[in-house]
Structure formats: C-alpha cells, structure tokens
Amino acid sequence: MKMITAVIKPFKLDDVREALSDVGVQGMTVTEVKGFGRQKGHTEIYRDAEYAVDFLPKVKVEIVLSDEQVERAVEIIVESARSGKIGDGKIFVLPVEEVIRIRTGELNDSAI
Q1: What pLDDT digit, counting tens, does each position of 35-80 carry?
Q2: d(CA 71, CA 79)
C-alpha cells in the first residue's frame, strides 16, 4: 500500500476528484494548506500599498491505495492538476505499513 499526497492549486480540486472517481478511487482526505516552492510567493497591491504574499493557498489531497492502483492514480493527478504554469504543485508517494478501519477493525487492503 502507498499514500499519495498531492499539493495542488485549489481550482483544480474538482477536476482531480472527478478524474480519480472515474477510475474507482473511493475516498480521499482534502486539506486547505498554504505554502510556496520555487516561485517564493508574489506581491499584491491593496489600497496603494504593496504586500508580499509569501504563502500561497493550495489544497493537499491524501489517498491510500493498493500498490497496483498507485501508478495510474499518479498519472491521473498529473493530467488533471496540470495548468502548465508555475505553482502547479507536487506529488509525494510514501509507503504505508498498516491501515485499520476503526469501525470494523478491518486491516490493510480491506480497510481501504
């Protein structure tokens, strides 16, 4: 099992969710986050004053999948989250040792 963590632009969330649902991904956790990468934020002007915005709004999507589903899910996230502009985000794939469904006590693949 693997955990996919994708940090994407907020307006791409619906596209990513729909594309993953179409291939059978049943659940995900979504968190609103802020951060920056190489672009190091940007400046905005408000009431004639310039402000540095160091942290940009992003959305973090977390999904745990069986090993067989991971490669396709990553491809789908890349395709549906890409705008071609700076700040499209990152995807991290991490190993998951164990999953337990609290309600039933099911373990691992059956708990996903």
Answers
A1: 877 766 556 666 777 666 677 889 999 999 999 999 999 999 999 9
A2: 12
Cα angle 96-102-77, degrees, rounded to a multiple of 5: 45
Which residue spans within 1-112 are E strands per DSSP? 2-8, 29-35, 42-46, 49-53, 56-65, 89-95
CATH classification at residue 71: 3.30.70.120
d(CA 21, CA 40): 33
Domain assignment of residue 22, given as a range: 2-111
Number of folded domains in the chain? 1
Separation of alpha carbons 51 and 108, rounded Å: 47
For residue 48, give every residue at least 6 positions away whose Cβ sits within 8 Å of its Cβ, in sequence order, or none.
Answer: none
What is the Cα gyration radius of the chain? 17
Residue 99: both structure tokens together: 């999953």
Q: Against a cut of 0.90, is the pTM above it?
A: no
